[in-house]
Write a structure and sequence with these properties.
seven-stranded parallel β-sheet; globular; alpha/beta
């Protein structure tokens, strides 16, 4: 399908699609490996909305990524918090092997890129860059030698907490049980181990007390990130970061990736479509400047996107919306990947 017919089909301007196809575009969080692992979802086949009509799963496949110019993504290995702690690391190892086998089966269409230089090489070759990530640091709890396991720097990032409290600290979700929600000593040690390995510490999903404890334990010379979140300055919500948190990440030289989950994004009387994502990006710019916002869709992470993003083609529609709202192409390129790539180079 050529770009003119693609733009027409998607209802976006040719300028928006051309910008997507020309620029770097890195999604900081996709959870599609859950679907691959649990029911054999085929990421190499182009899918439609499917039975779920874009709710929860079925958002991402390689053809749809290619059509809108997605050059790379953090493909997440997500931890089952209800699995016994002693088993999680063994399962992580098994899932890593399956993850690598999936990429190897792509016939060269996908490649692991754990450094900015490796990403640049993949980009030059026109192949999709897979940035490995772990969601739920408790997957690492039973690692016999964490520093040794992290030393190969296969990972790009680890999200410290997920939807439940763990031995590392408190989650921001309503499932939290800890009263003080502070980061534990083991949580602080994990932050420091990730810093030593030059792996991003991801502060999505984390309770505010644990957020600030992680910041205190973190090497101030290195950037922090929150890969997939909304912002409370637009919609006050347990899942969203407040202005002080955004500012702290910005001061570290990091980025804040905005999620595509409508229930965290939509404000009363606000837009119903991808414009709600644009509002959160614009709030980050107002608070911290245009060098901070990024994209972290959380596609296939059991989210319900805005209606015009449910088909997985939300990136190009968001770019189209930003152009309509008067954003410069330079600023849009920063959001699409430029800000993250700058932070990644500072980390390494």
């Amino acid at each position: 399908m050529n770009s003119i017919s693609t733009a027409q089909k998607l209802g976006v301007t040719q300028r928006a699609l051309d910008l997507c196809l020309d620029a770097d575009l890195i999604d900081l969080h996709v959870d599609t490996f859950i679907s691959v692992r649990l029911w054999g979802y085929d990421i190499f086949k182009r899918h439609g909305l499917g039975l779920l009509r874009g709710h929860f799963f079925g958002h991402v496949d390689l053809p749809r990524m290619d059509e809108q110019g997605v050059t790379g993504a953090m493909w997440s290995l997500t931890t089952n918090p209800f699995r016994p702690e002693r088993r999680r690391f063994a399962v992580l190892q098994k899932n890593r092997a399956r993850y690598e086998a999936l990429i190897a089966s792509s016939g060269g269409k996908m490649v692991v890129t754990s450094t900015p230089d490796a990403y640049a090489q993949a980009r030059a070759q026109g192949v999709h860059a897979v940035l490995p990530a772990i969601q739920g640091g408790n997957a690492l709890a039973a690692a016999p030698d964490l520093d040794a396991w992290l030393a190969d720097r296969w990972l790009t990032r680890v999200t410290l907490l997920h939807l439940t409290d763990s031995l590392y600290g408190g989650t921001s979700s309503p499932a939290a049980k800890a009263k003080n929600q502070r980061l534990s000593e083991r949580g602080k040690a994990l932050v420091q181990a990730l810093d030593r390995a030059r792996i991003f510490v991801d502060l999505a999903h984390i309770a505010p007390p644990s957020f600030w404890d992680a910041l205190a334990a973190h090497d101030p010379a290195l950037p922090l990130i929150a890969t997939h979140t909304g912002v409370s300055g637009v919609v006050p919500h347990w899942r969203n970061l407040d202005d002080a948190q955004i500012t702290a990440i910005a001061k570290s030289g990091g980025v804040v990736g905005v999620i595509y989950a409508a229930n965290f994004m939509h404000r009363d009387g606000g837009p119903q479509n991808c414009e709600m994502v644009a509002e959160h990006l614009e709030h980050i710019v107002r608070v911290a400047g245009e060098d901070v916002p990024a994209i972290g869709s959380d596609y296939d992470g059991a989210i319900v996107p805005p209606d015009d993003m449910k088909d997985g083609m939300g990136h190009v529609r968001l770019v189209d919306a930003l152009l309509r709202r008067g954003w410069s192409e330079t600023a849009i390129r920063k959001v699409m990947a430029g800000n993250f790539l700058s932070a990644w180079r500072r980390l390494r």
